[in-house]
Amino acid sequence: MSSIRIIAVAAIFFLGCSPGPTEVLTDAPTFSIHGQTIPFRANLRGTAQDPSDVVCPTGSFAGKFSLSGHATELGDVAGDGSGCTAFTSPTAFVFLAANNTIVAANGDELWLTLVSGGGSVVGFDPTSGPKLAWTAEKDIIGGTGRFAGATGRVTEVGTQDGSFAPSESILEGRISRVGAK
Question: What is the residue-averaged pLDDT of the chain?
Answer without folding.
Answer: 83
